[in-house]
Task: structure prediction
Amino acid sequence: METVLDLVDICKNFGRKKIISNFSMRVKEGRIVGLVGPNGAGKSTLIKIMVGLLKPTSGRVYINGVSLSHDYEKAISNVGCIVENPEFFPDMSGFENLNYFAGFRKNISKENIAEVAAKVGLEKRIHDKVKKYSLGMKQRLGIALALLGNPQILITDEPFNSLDHTSVYEIRQLVKMLAKDGKLTIIISSHNLNEIQSLCTDVVFIKEGRLVLQKEMKEIAAAVHYRITVPEELTELALHLLRDFQAERTADSSIQIAVNGEDLNGVLSRLLENKIPIREIKNVAQNLEELYLLSTGGDFHVS
Amino acid sequence: MSARFFNLFRKELKKTVFSKTFLLFSSVIVVTLIVSLHFYYATLDSEPYGSSYGVIPFEDSEELQAHLDNNEEYISELYGRLEVTTDSNRRSLIEKEIRHRERLSLIYRYLQSHQIPYSQYYDFGSLTNRGYEDNFSFFVFVTTFPIIIMVVGIAVLSALIVTNDFTIGTYKFVYTSGVSRTKVVLVKLGVILALLFSSCLLILLAGLAFGLLLYANSGKYMIMASYSTVFHVGITGYFFLSLLNFFSLGLFICGIIFFISLFFKNNVISLVVSAILLFLFLNGYNIFEYQNQDLAIFNVFTSVNIFDVFSVEPVFDSVWKYLGVSFAYLLISGAAGISWFKRKDFC
Result:
């Protein structure tokens, strides 16, 4: 698979404040990438840099190998995006809005517009004025607009924000349907980890403008985690002994550790050599939320 | 590329024409035109000279020569007074009077050499020297207010056409849609200029059409005079000159306001700044009247002035100098606005 989006060492400052620091990321064709981070982590800033609304202080953005700063029109022609809430001309109908924005793209016919409207399930309301649309409908209209001109990359910023459960479900189904043939690369920034886990093939964690982790979702699912329970008064000693491993104390004073089968033997030997009795060993599947909190330094530990 | 550019222009034009702002100003212009027509038509009977141009007696060539001689004599007298006057204020007044009188002589000679009948009803003191010929008066009267409203209306549109996308939030689609920022801005400017030209043309055509309908093509001469040149035109010639005048005026005012609006991302701020600029454009000639006359031409608010378009002085006196300076301002504001807009972050 080819790299369709390449962010190289992106930095963005607003005045003296650093918003993005040395952020590099590669996205392969056909992937669905979830961009996750706490509020103020720089997700929207990064997305605006990806689509050329913000100029990076340093670093480069390549779309299909074309530099966004050198050949903006060619690079951006492969991208459809919805940045923050989709806003339209309220006194124009959905169709009129799409038709107006179609003027910016090459060779978009009215049939193409009707096609994308049907794809996002708006065909019955497409001639209504946008001011009568719900937020979910506007979100779908935004996706329709982003899909005009058959882009290779669809970038959506917080598509589930402020949506009710039905709309979240509809958007999720829509994204799954768009990604079905594997040709469209989708980048979704969101707070909603459940949606990211159920939709995305890759996840990128961002904190304070820095890349914290980039992993394929299947790697996360395949990662073996063991939960080892020792007597509570010996937990601190056990954590000290296992400091070479990524060992964490859990809420019930067990020790959670990410190791493969061979390393588990070493862990157990070390505990037993130091006369720490092992009460229970459990194999636990890793949860995206836990990984997110661990990676971004969230409040995973119980004090 | 050009087909896409034209397609974009067409869609932007349609959106702007059907916008509330444009519809509001268009309605006001139409109402003003109708009211102007009504008032002028209602006062026709009380006009002293009706459609009597060319029929009323005019003074013969001897009379005209006498006017010229008297004027020349008075100019010599004024030069004499100037030599003995030391008070700077008085000297300035005398110089002003000399300029006016020399302009009259220029007109008298022009009338003589072109064998244009001299009518006492020509008011050479007025700025256009149009006299009281019905067709010209009618044309100027019915088009003046609609044109002013049109320029103000399109100046408002110029201030809003770019910032509106930021206020609504549609800029996120406009500037990520595969067309460079410069091209988007040029398309929007093109729409403003197209609206300006077509509105100007329609208003003036309406004035011309109604004038011809009421008076037929009775107008023979419209004497246009500056301090250095004199020429005369018929009503259709005056129509084209007016079109050129008003379009140039609108181009400078709306163009400069458009480019300055590129520095803002909010309708209200853009409108406030535009209102200040418009105020200066409308009143600059009076506000900056007493500044150094040699530098006056470099003050855009004196060289491009909406009311002075109705006079011949700023437009036809050193016309190229004024046009050159105005174009220079337009180019400077355009270069600054576009270069800023290309680089700025859209947060």
Observations:
- The first strand of chain A starts at residue 3 and ends at 14.
- Chain A has two domains: 3-220, 224-285.
- Chain A touches chain B at residues 48, 51-55, 72-73, 76-77, 79, 81-92, 99-106, 145, 149 (CB under 8 Å).
